[in-house]
Amino acid sequence: MTGEGGRATVEAIPVSVITGFLGSGKTTLLNRLLAHADMQDTAVLVNEFGDIGLDHLLVRDVSENVVLLNAGCICCSVRGDLVAALRDLILKRAADAIPQFRRVAIETTGLADPAPIIHTLMGDQFIVSHYRLDGVITVVDAVLGWKQLDQHPESVKQAAVADRIVLSKVDLAPDESVESLCDRLRGLNPAADLIPADHGDVAPRLLLNTGLFDATGKIPDVDKWLRDEAYSGADHHERIDHAHHENSLGHRTRHGDHISAFCMTVAEPIHWDGLVTWLDMLLSTRGESVLRVKGILNVVGEDRPVVIHGVQHVFHPPATLPAWPDRDRRSRIVFITRGLNRQAIEDTFHVFMRDAASTASG
Description:
Elements: E1 13-20, H1 26-34, E2 42-47, H2 55-60, E3 66-69, H3 79-94, E4 103-107, H4 114-123, H5 125-130, E5 131-141, H6 145-151, H7 153-160, E6 164-168, H8 175-188, E7 193-196, H9 222-225, E8 246-247, E9 251-252, E10 259-266, H10 272-286, E11 290-297, E12 306-311, E13 314-315, E14 319-320, E15 331-338, H11 342-361
């Protein structure tokens, strides 16, 4: 449901998106997760590319609520089917036509670009009023992952936008290869936990509740995915001399991935109108290059932190958290971008913040 001012409340059903390149082990992971008691009340949506789907048959034995999203990639022709399926689940649950469920898991095809899926979960009014994105779980093959990152841009985006990265087949890869792959994944996505899976066996608690808020009132990952040092070089730090801004040097990925992750830290409270105007400008002009934005904000006039979360052109309604995750009251905004100049983001931010402060004082 949505609360006052359009801000999301915690009653919505959490949705976990499980993605990863072809053959990485998504279905194996999903089956093992559904076998846990914590996941018994889970509805499952399975997307497969092509006219004949099989993976949903592998999942059906462990979950009664399995819906096949077939005939194409979920990031293109099946997006309408995704909305329809999520609507249908709500209506059938209300009519007791299906077993009650407390959580939804979506398994994408290995060819999926996850960004449009997140768009759908954030942008459709009915979906936003009943569901919330809990997190993106990306499965990476420890044996073939490096080659897939080199050859397939979908694999890079899947890793870059993940909240959790599960490493499959680690028992089949040399230790040094696994560590090298982990280094590369940390460069693509510094804040995501890297979790090895023994034949897909991962405790649900390690993968769930990675979003902005959950039904227990916790703030699961805010302190982690906004932790400055996760985006900082181990031995190098950069300071920008500006009254409103401090930041740490962000990671740059290797071998032409063209994806960067960095965190802006803003010392003084932010004027909300200026931030919204700035984000509108940035996303309208360079939205395709902004893979993901997350931020915890100290907003002028607000006693509690406000969280923002967006993917490309689409932003989730801002959420006011019950409390700050720690004593740090600075605003922190994480960007994961592709081919977008970091300096341009920082410079335009400063301009809009100065204009907003001037307008407020005048």
